[in-house]
């Protein structure tokens, strides 16, 4: 238990963290990677360069300070991060390293304002929070390894098939090289893929949603090739997978992880809403519903720029034709002439609330959505405007967690 004095000290730092949190976490990563460059084998370099990891950590530290007298309030966030840590291979011995450099960063950024009393309180608090993570992750490591078909850390998989799904998305069908069984997973979960790109000093690890139902003799991931833009570098791993990984090659996978999962015990209608490559966990959920829950009403809504980049459309259309309980709708931002001729979509432009109301028959449903952050912000705001309860809204970020608050009011 954290002492009452330490609780009050931590709470007094909340306003400071709100202002200086990202500066502190940026300095933290600089210090830690300088002292422990081996940790660059674990962390996503792209998220570091774009500042997404620093912002996500700052939000976690802020939330921990805000709820330091009731850490149960941040337990969902702890479990979400713990899933990611387990899939990356974060171990108990990493936590003292993180704690040491976080305190150093607080001292560096705040200077004399970071008194010995404040640093002592944060050291005490960090120890309690770290123990919570270590305990949760120990259970996850044990479950991942000892479940039927499970394994520890990373396991070699062979690319059995590689299928181009659209101009920018390819699917990889992966089977274990050892010929053994593979663990089941829950629809919506992901695996970490570890690759060594020729010429790069450090290993890269990325999370990719499993894009099929469980129970198959393979895992399938569907990867978007992230092309470079002036404000964003190209995806190092996605381009490597698209350009250099072929059928017969080897990839190293973690056991499935993640807490963005379809509630299969909820008998109410379900609405799946995706944008771009955010459709990958939705396809896993859709396939699961089609195979095992044929009486549950399903509305599948996908937004894409146009048919050129719309993956798995034929598959979804075939499911909708086969299952009367399943309906599919597509929104194209900039349809091609061919899209128009073929009437390949249901709405032009962007998804909006009036259109959602026109295609969702029963709003008393469970909603799952995934896609680019601005897309999810818009969907989240639209559904809340409709009066959908918070408990029925489920979403996942690809990468570090961000805010779904409208940009103008986001902290």
From TrEMBL:
<dbReference type="GO" id="GO:0071500">
    <property type="term" value="P:cellular response to nitrosative stress"/>
</dbReference>
<dbReference type="Pfam" id="PF00970">
    <property type="entry name" value="FAD_binding_6"/>
</dbReference>
<dbReference type="InterPro" id="IPR000971">
    <property type="entry name" value="Globin"/>
</dbReference>
<dbReference type="InterPro" id="IPR008333">
    <property type="entry name" value="Cbr1-like_FAD-bd_dom"/>
</dbReference>
<dbReference type="InterPro" id="IPR017927">
    <property type="entry name" value="FAD-bd_FR_type"/>
</dbReference>
<feature type="site" description="Influences the redox potential of the prosthetic heme and FAD groups">
    <location>
        <position position="396"/>
    </location>
</feature>
<keyword id="KW-0349">Heme</keyword>
<dbReference type="InterPro" id="IPR012292">
    <property type="entry name" value="Globin/Proto"/>
</dbReference>
<keyword id="KW-0274">FAD</keyword>
<keyword id="KW-0561">Oxygen transport</keyword>
<feature type="binding site">
    <location>
        <begin position="397"/>
        <end position="400"/>
    </location>
    <ligand>
        <name>FAD</name>
    </ligand>
</feature>
<dbReference type="InterPro" id="IPR023950">
    <property type="entry name" value="Hmp"/>
</dbReference>
<comment type="similarity">
    <text>In the C-terminal section; belongs to the flavoprotein pyridine nucleotide cytochrome reductase family.</text>
</comment>
<dbReference type="InterPro" id="IPR017938">
    <property type="entry name" value="Riboflavin_synthase-like_b-brl"/>
</dbReference>
<keyword id="KW-0216">Detoxification</keyword>
<feature type="domain" description="FAD-binding FR-type">
    <location>
        <begin position="152"/>
        <end position="263"/>
    </location>
</feature>
<keyword id="KW-0520">NAD</keyword>
<feature type="site" description="Influences the redox potential of the prosthetic heme and FAD groups">
    <location>
        <position position="84"/>
    </location>
</feature>
<keyword id="KW-0408">Iron</keyword>
<dbReference type="InterPro" id="IPR039261">
    <property type="entry name" value="FNR_nucleotide-bd"/>
</dbReference>
<feature type="site" description="Involved in heme-bound ligand stabilization and O-O bond activation">
    <location>
        <position position="29"/>
    </location>
</feature>
<feature type="active site" description="Charge relay system">
    <location>
        <position position="137"/>
    </location>
</feature>
<dbReference type="GO" id="GO:0008941">
    <property type="term" value="F:nitric oxide dioxygenase NAD(P)H activity"/>
</dbReference>
<dbReference type="Pfam" id="PF00175">
    <property type="entry name" value="NAD_binding_1"/>
</dbReference>
<keyword id="KW-0285">Flavoprotein</keyword>
<feature type="binding site">
    <location>
        <position position="190"/>
    </location>
    <ligand>
        <name>FAD</name>
    </ligand>
</feature>
<dbReference type="InterPro" id="IPR009050">
    <property type="entry name" value="Globin-like_sf"/>
</dbReference>
<keyword id="KW-0560">Oxidoreductase</keyword>
<keyword id="KW-0479">Metal-binding</keyword>
<dbReference type="InterPro" id="IPR001433">
    <property type="entry name" value="OxRdtase_FAD/NAD-bd"/>
</dbReference>
<comment type="similarity">
    <text>Belongs to the globin family. Two-domain flavohemoproteins subfamily.</text>
</comment>
<dbReference type="GO" id="GO:0071949">
    <property type="term" value="F:FAD binding"/>
</dbReference>
<protein>
    <recommendedName>
        <fullName>Flavohemoprotein</fullName>
        <ecNumber>1.14.12.17</ecNumber>
    </recommendedName>
</protein>
<feature type="binding site" description="proximal binding residue">
    <location>
        <position position="85"/>
    </location>
    <ligand>
        <name>heme b</name>
    </ligand>
</feature>
<dbReference type="GO" id="GO:0046872">
    <property type="term" value="F:metal ion binding"/>
</dbReference>
<feature type="binding site">
    <location>
        <begin position="206"/>
        <end position="209"/>
    </location>
    <ligand>
        <name>FAD</name>
    </ligand>
</feature>
<feature type="region of interest" description="Reductase">
    <location>
        <begin position="149"/>
        <end position="411"/>
    </location>
</feature>
<dbReference type="GO" id="GO:0005344">
    <property type="term" value="F:oxygen carrier activity"/>
</dbReference>
<feature type="active site" description="Charge relay system">
    <location>
        <position position="95"/>
    </location>
</feature>
<keyword id="KW-0521">NADP</keyword>
<dbReference type="Pfam" id="PF00042">
    <property type="entry name" value="Globin"/>
</dbReference>
<feature type="binding site">
    <location>
        <begin position="276"/>
        <end position="281"/>
    </location>
    <ligand>
        <name>NADP(+)</name>
    </ligand>
</feature>
């Amino acid at each position: 238990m954290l002492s009452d004095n330490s609780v009050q000290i931590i709470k007094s730092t909340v306003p400071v963290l709100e202002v200086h949190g990202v500066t502190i976490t940026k300095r933290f990563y600089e210090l830690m990677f300088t002292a422990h460059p081996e940790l660059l084998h674990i962390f996503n370099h792209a998220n570091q360069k774009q500042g997404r990891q620093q912002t996500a950590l700052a939000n976690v530290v802020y939330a921990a300070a805000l709820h330091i007298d009731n850490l149960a309030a941040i337990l969902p966030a702890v479990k979400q991060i713990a899933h990611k840590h387990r899939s990356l291979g974060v171990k108990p011995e990493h936590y003292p390293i993180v704690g040491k450099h976080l305190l150093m960063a607080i001292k560096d950024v705040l200077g004399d304002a970071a008194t010995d009393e404040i640093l002592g309180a944060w050291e005490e608090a960090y120890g309690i929070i770290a123990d919570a993570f270590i305990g949760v992750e120990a259970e996850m490591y044990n479950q991942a390894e000892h479940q039927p078909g499970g394994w520890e850390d990373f396991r070699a998989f062979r690319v059995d098939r590689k299928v181009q799904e659209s101009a920018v998305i390819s699917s990889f069908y992966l089977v274990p090289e050892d010929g053994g069984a593979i663990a089941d997973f829950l629809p919506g979960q992901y695996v970490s893929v570890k690759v060594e790109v020729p010429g790069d000093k450090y290993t890269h690890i990325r999370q990719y949603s499993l894009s099929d139902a469980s129970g198959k003799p393979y895992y399938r991931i569907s990867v978007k090739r992230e092309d470079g833009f002036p404000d964003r570098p190209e995806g190092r791993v996605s381009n490597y997978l698209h350009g250099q990984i072929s059928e017969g090659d080897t990839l190293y996978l973690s056991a499935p992880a993640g807490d963005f999962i379809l509630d299969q015990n909820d008998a109410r209608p379900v609405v799946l809403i995706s944008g771009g490559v955010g459709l990958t966990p939705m396809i896993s959920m859709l396939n699961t519903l089609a195979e095992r829950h044929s009486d549950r009403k399903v509305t599948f809504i996908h937004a894409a720029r146009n048919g050129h980049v719309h993956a798995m459309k034929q598959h979804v259309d075939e499911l909708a034709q086969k299952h009367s309980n399943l309906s599919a709708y597509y929104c194209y931002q900039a349809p091609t002439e061919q899209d128009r001729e073929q009437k390949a979509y249901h709405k032009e432009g962007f998804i909006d609330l009036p259109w959602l109301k026109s295609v969702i028959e029963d709003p008393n449903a469970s909603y799952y959505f995934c896609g680019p952050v601005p897309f999810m912000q818009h969907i989240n705001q639209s559904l809340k405007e409709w009066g959908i309860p918070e408990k029925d809204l489920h979403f996942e970020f690809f990468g570090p967690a961000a805010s779904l608050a409208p940009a103008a009011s986001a902290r």
